[in-house]
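Q: what sequence does this backbone want?
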């Protein structure tokens, strides 16, 4: 079961990153008219949450190693601290951005909120994606 979850967590980011980039593009070109009805934004947020959930499942059981040992080893620090923390922040930004945009009535403000939050989320997520593992088929 862990292997299946690992494969899903490995291949799902391709779809998620495409949707996130497409959402940023739509917001940058003012193509979002109603954030509460936009299916791309909803799909992006759902995939972000699924990806986060899969990552949390893979993260636990946490190894029985002292935090000092993890912080001294760059590979372990990336796997157990940096990657999960920044992915959580990225998903949080996506969720906050979509929620705020849904409450607005002006489409220009909706697009601006989505553009800013989704773009920051994209940058945060891309900073801590393990590209060497993601692109290794």
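A:
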């Amino acid at each position: 079961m862990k292997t299946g979850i690992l494969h899903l967590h490995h291949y799902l980011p391709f779809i998620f990153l495409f949707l996130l980039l497409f959402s940023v593009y739509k917001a940058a070109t003012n193509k979002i008219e109603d954030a509460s009805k936009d299916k791309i934004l909803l799909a992006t947020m759902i995939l972000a949450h699924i990806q986060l959930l899969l990552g949390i499942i893979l993260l636990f059981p946490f190894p029985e190693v002292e935090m000092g040992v993890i912080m001294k080893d760059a590979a372990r620090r990336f796997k157990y601290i940096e990657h999960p923390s920044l992915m959580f922040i990225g998903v949080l930004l996506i969720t906050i951005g979509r929620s705020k945009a849904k409450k607005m009535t002006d489409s220009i403000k909706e697009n601006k909120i989505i553009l800013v939050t989704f773009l920051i989320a994209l940058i945060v997520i891309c900073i801590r994606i393990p590209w060497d593992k993601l692109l290794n088929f």
